[in-house]
Write a structure and sequence with these properties.
The strands form four sheets. This protein has an eight-stranded mixed sheet, sandwiched between helices. Strands 10-12-8-13 form a four-stranded antiparallel sheet. It is elongated, with a radius of gyration of 25 Å. The chain contains twelve helices and 16 strands. The chain has helices at 2-15, 29-39, 41-53, 62-74, 133-148, 176-182, 242-253, 255-258, 298-319, 338-352, 369-373, 406-423, and strands at residues 78-83, 87-93, 100-106, 157-163, 193-200, 208-210, 213-216, 218-227, 231-232, 267-276, 282-283, 286-295, 322-329, 334-336, 357-359, 378-384. A hairpin with a 3-residue loop joins β1 and β2 (87-93). α5 (133-148) crosses α12 and α7 packs antiparallel against α9 (298-319). It starts with a helix and ends with a helix.
């Protein structure tokens, strides 16, 4: 009798136009999302294979953006296009306006010639989805489809962000996330939390990896010019050897990692390019070099910059060189909110099994999801890709069985964070 009365009450409320939110415990989200991920699996594979064939570079994701916006519009979402050029913001209105949870995916490809041999390989011959962004888009689209089917049960607004240029433009200017945030993608409605993922080789399909705090590193590009004085190679004392000074600098830079940094703090300093000189028998008067610094705190990053500058100042005194150094901070470290991690861990463990949820050390690769995670509480996790090849290689590809998991986990996290933030 009580169940009948409850059902009648719900019908009356809906007929009268009253928004009704089902209690979290009255609906089995886990079972629903698993069922729908399986039901939409073939569609996900088709989506991914189409997107894989049309890779586009930073801020030129025109066909991709058009396809994504049309798909989301058909789902009934409120779609905004042209954000930061090709970016998309799609709003799914749940049973309540607040809180607002964002789900983010990136859309750009890399200037790599594909060598997978797939029937569905890139038709834009100079570009390839070699970092799995075709899979990220697919996960986001299917998550939107899953959630749109139960919007009356979600006590929140869900915002889907499809972002251009995660890889960053070749000229070192602002990435897609920077421009999306400056364009107001986290406002109107104001986002309270954001979730995203990255496919990751090295983990099997059906596994995830995450941690509280820093997950991925600060990314800094260092450019240095050392200026000496040219002379004949037979009379080195008459010149100031920029190559010798540069080699001394490179060797001393490594002491910043091995001897001047707390060994409990992770960091990497790599000089990846160096050039100078005009002839074998001429003392070089100038050397240019560039590299990258990866770290997981701003204090360490600042200390490395100061240390590099001090080393170069010392060489100016001891060798007579002059120098210029730029220390260009790119993406910040990806920061996982501790409360969001604690909220989602038992859910992921229940869905995937305890052994498939890995708590990992931070990795030194970068991701501009960091821009969002330093603006609002964020959760970013690695999705086991069961991959062919490694990221950014011409043979990279995900195992398509990931589409049994990626959409479900994004959707499940969005719902769980909705209830968590609603209770705060």
């Amino acid at each position: 009798m009580k169940k009948r009365m409850f059902g009648l009450l719900v019908i009356v409320l809906l007929v009268c136009g009253v928004s009704f939110v089902f209690p979290a415990g009255s609906f089995d989200f886990d079972a629903y999302f698993k069922e729908k991920s399986a039901a939409y699996y073939d569609e996900a594979v088709q989506l991914r294979r189409y997107l894989h064939q049309i890779p586009e570079p930073c801020f030129k994701e025109n066909e991709t953006s058009k396809f994504v916006s049309q798909y989301l519009t058909k789902l009934g979402l409120e779609v905004q296009t042209g954000i930061a050029g090709t970016g998309i913001k799609a709003i799914l209105h749940g049973a309540k306006d607040k809180p607002v949870i964002a789900v983010r995916a990136d859309m750009d490809a890399l200037p790599i010639v594909e060598q997978t041999g797939f029937e569905f390989q890139s038709q834009n011959k100079e570009f390839m989805h070699a970092c799995g962004h075709d899979a990220h888009i697919t996960n986001g689209l299917i998550a939107a489809k899953i959630l749109s089917g139960i919007k009356s049960r979600i006590p929140a607004t869900i915002v889907f962000i499809f972002q251009p240029c995660e890889e960053g433009p070749s000229d070192g200017s602002e990435s897609g996330a920077d421009k999306m945030v400056k364009s107001g993608v986290l406002d109107n409605p104001k986002v309270d939390a954001v979730v995203g993922l990255h496919v990751m080789p090295g983990y099997p399909v059906g596994a995830v990896a995450l941690r509280e705090g820093p997950l991925m590193g600060n990314v800094t590009t260092v450019s240095i010019t050392i200026k000496g004085k040219s002379s004949h190679g037979a009379f080195p004392h008459q010149g100031i050897d920029a190559i010798y000074a540069a080699s001394c600098a490179v060797m001393q830079f490594q002491s910043l990692i091995s001897r001047f940094k707390d060994p409990n703090e992770r960091a990497v300093l790599t000089i990846g390019m160096i050039s100078g000189g005009v002839r074998p028998n001429v003392i070089a008067d100038q050397v240019s070099m560039s590299g990258t610094v990866r770290s997981f705190s701003f204090d360490v990053e600042n200390a490395i910059e100061k240390g590099m500058d001090n080393i170069l100042k010392g060489l100016r005194v001891s060798m007579g060189i002059d120098y210029q150094m730029s220390f260009d901070r790119g993406s910040r470290y990806v920061k996982n909110d501790a409360k969001l991690v604690q909220t989602i861990l038992p859910v992921f463990r229940r869905i995937l099994g305890e052994s498939n949820v890995h708590i990992v050390d931070p990795v030194t690769i970068g991701e501009d999801f960091s821009v969002y995670s330093h603006k609002v509480p964020g959760l970013f996790f690695f999705l086991g890709a069961g991959a062919q090849g490694v990221l950014h290689s011409p043979v990279f590809s995900v195992d398509e069985k990931i589409f049994n998991y990626g959409p479900m986990l994004l959707a499940r996290a969005a719902v769980e964070f909705s209830y968590f933030l609603e209770r705060k």
